[in-house]
Write a structure and sequence with these properties.
Blueprint: E1 4-5, E2 11-12, H1 22-38, E3 40-44, E4 53-56, E5 79-86, E6 90-94, E7 99-110, E8 117-121, E9 129-131, E10 138-144, E11 148-151, E12 163-168, E13 171-180, E14 185-187
């Protein structure tokens, strides 16, 4: 049986295969493992132009080389930074039949307009996840073998400094009328106690008219 490759491109050498080259192939396999576990890659999304287009990140069997802006094995790296001054909406695809977590930084700049950057699987049945035009942050994503899914571990606070957080249609919202300095609570709007009573303990309730 000839040698085969797994979804990372690591060569699974069959018994009796690769006589005289086993050592080199093993070193390549170890480099591939290192790249998948901790590799960093900077990828321009303007290889086919600054306008709206698709950049397909690739992964080559038995090859651990990946230079800056080269698509050859860009998809294998753990951390990928997207770069380029863009003028149209971009799509960046990851190879189908691959799996794993990735951290993707949106390092693009807007040359004109308000372009977005979408991340998805090459044969994704969904829409993946998209960096909004103003979002130059980072996303953790999981490639499932077909679809790319955003992994949300924590959400940055919404609103402005000192505002309390509240559930705003399943997302964090900042309550502009309810703020605190950590000791005092300030309500800028109407305070309503429905079906109950408003009680203060140890302090007077002061009302101004």
């Amino acid at each position: 049986m000839p040698s085969t490759y797994n979804y990372l491109g690591i060569e699974k050498m069959a018994t009796g295969e690769n006589a005289g080259t086993w050592g080199n192939k093993t070193n390549t396999n170890l480099d591939i493992i290192q790249q998948a576990a901790s590799g960093y890659h900077s990828q321009s999304v303007n290889l086919v132009g600054a306008g709206a287009n698709t950049t397909a990140l690739l992964m080559t069997d038995g090859d651990s080389t990946s230079t800056t802006d080269s698509l050859t094995n860009a998809a294998r790296n753990q951390v990928i930074k997207l770069t380029g001054a863009i003028t149209g909406n971009k799509i960046v695809t990851f190879p189908t039949d691959t799996e794993g977590l990735k951290i993707v930084f949106n390092g693009t700049t807007d040359a004109s307009g308000t372009p977005t950057v979408q991340l998805k699987g090459a044969s994704d049945s969904g829409s993946g996840t998209t960096f909004a035009a103003s979002d130059k942050g980072k996303k953790m994503v999981y490639m499932s073998g077909t679809d790319l899914i955003e992994v949300v571990l924590a959400t940055d606070p919404a609103g402005s400094d000192t505002q309390l957080q509240y559930n705003n249609s399943g997302a964090f919202g900042g309550a502009a009328g309810l703020t605190t300095d950590g000791t005092n609570l300030t309500a800028a709007g109407i305070v309503t106690a429905e079906g109950g009573q408003l009680t203060t303990i140890g302090k007077a309730l002061v009302m101004g008219f």
